[in-house]
C-alpha cells in the first residue's frame, strides 16, 4: 500500500466523535482522525513490515499514522537514533504506549534505551521505560502479584 493511499484510508476511517472522546483523555486533537486501534491493526496486517514506509508515516505528524508506523516498522531495522528522535515526538500517552509495545520493546536495544531514558525528565521519555517494564517485555526484578507489574532498578 502506498503512503498517499494510507493517508486517504485514514481520512476515510476518521471519526470526529472519537476525536472528541480522545481529547477528554488528554490526547491532542490536532492532527488526529479518531481511527480505532482495531482498524489500525487491520491496516498494519494488510501492509506488513515496511521500515521506509513507517518512517514516512511517522514524519507525517498524524496521530494515527504514527501509531500505524509503530505497527509496521521492522524492529531489526530500528536504530538508536530513530528511537531517540521518535520519543521526542511523543505528544500523548497512547502514541507512547503503542510505539513501545508494538516496536521499541522488540528491538535489540530495548533494555539499554529503557535504562537511559529513566534519567530523562520529559514525561513521555520516562513513561516509555515504565511501559516497557509493565508489559513484561523487559524482564527485570521479581513479579509483583499485587500490581501485576515487574519492578525495575
The string of secondary-structure elements, in order, is HHHHHHHHHEE
Proportion in β-strands:
under 5%
What structural category characterises the helix and strand content? mainly alpha
Taking pLDDT < 50 over at least 5 consecutive residues as the criterion, the unreliable ranges are 128-136
Radius of gyration: 16 Å
Shape: globular
The largest β sheet comes out as:
2 strands, antiparallel
Number of helices: 9
Strand line-up across the major sheet: 1-2
For the record, give the distance between the C-alpha atoms at the N and C termini, rounded to a whole number: 42 Å
Helix content: 55-70%
Note the topology.
Layout: H1 3-12, H2 16-24, H3 37-47, H4 51-59, H5 63-72, H6 80-89, H7 93-102, H8 110-117, H9 123-134, E1 143-144, E2 149-150
Antiparallel strand pairs: 1-2
Helix pairs in contact: 3-5, 4-5, 5-7, 7-9, 8-9
Kindly describe this structure.
InterPro entries: ARM-type_fold, DNA_alkylation. It comes from marine sediment metagenome. This protein is mostly helical and 153 residues long. Helix content is 58%, strand content 3%. It folds into two domains: 1-74, no CATH class; 79-153, no CATH class. The chain contains nine helices and two strands. The chain has a two-stranded antiparallel ribbon. A hairpin with a 4-residue loop joins strand 1 (143-144) and strand 2 (149-150). Helix 3 packs across helix 5 (63-72), helix 5 packs parallel to helix 7 and helix 8 crosses helix 9. The radius of gyration is 16 Å and the shape is globular. 31% of the residues are buried.
